[in-house]
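Researcher: Good morning. I'm working through a list of sequences from a screen, and I'd like to move beyond sequence-only analysis. For each chain I'm collecting a predicted structure so we can compare shapes side by side. This is the next one on the list. No need for commentary yet; just the structure.
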Amino acid sequence: MINSKLVSPDIMMLSFAVASAVCSNGSEVNLDFANFSWIDVIILGIVQGITELLPISSTAHLRIVPTLLGLKDPGSAFSAAMQLASLTAVLVYFWQDLKKLTGETVRAISRQDYQSSSLQLMLGLLIGTLPIAVAGVLLKPILNACNSPIRGLVVIGAASIIMSGLLAIAEKRGGRDRTFDNLTLWDGIWVGVAQAFALIPGVSRSGSTLTAGLFLGMKRETSARFSFLLGLPAVILAGAVELHTLTKAGLSAAGWLTLLVGLISASISAFLAIWGLLRYLEKHSTLIFIFYRLAMGVFLIVAVMAGWLQN
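Model: Good morning. Structure tokens for this chain:
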């Protein structure tokens, strides 16, 4: 529940009324996060910031951690809005790269040099966003619903196990010799298709795009960098859509403040996650993430089957 020391009783009652009314109908938007305390949301923000940019699924962890803390599922709209924190971190961390790529793209267009590698890469990043945008629109009613079947722990566990296997195959068979300078339009398209599957909780946007990059022969750190940049348009679109969704759903002032607190904590942890992952992948394989995802998936399915956790 919301901490009464931090929020006035009137706002608490309004927030509770909005969340309760919305979630009484399974087809409506889930606003249960509006009832979380600031401490709970700070914890979820840290979890979101770290797991959004590591290949272990932020959506899955924002479903699992609240369950372990005895909280309700914060919902898909909350998860998508929280991804705006990773947008801030990626923009800050890769500002010089983005500035260089944009400048070279503009110059290529002005010269009508449509074979420019920078222009091709920029087009790949933009076109690669279309699959997840289309899939997001089609699945939005299911993803945003209270008690969405797609957000069940068994689904998350199964998706995590499958992605663990795919990442292991990509790690073993990938060429790992392509750098950021020789990526093409088609890399953006293929990795973009893989990114669309991240709408399924447990798949992971970072995990699916990193795996696809390895299958395409990219170096590990190159695949991670490409994953971060490809995610920018998708995160902007998803975040904007979900902010609009939350506004239409009548999120209270306390709910917006709660969301802001989570975004701040998530932004800080996301920046640290980028820094740590890129340095880790320069010298190490993705084996630790493969085993983590496998263990997480098996645990979730066993826990639900045994009655330790509610699906």
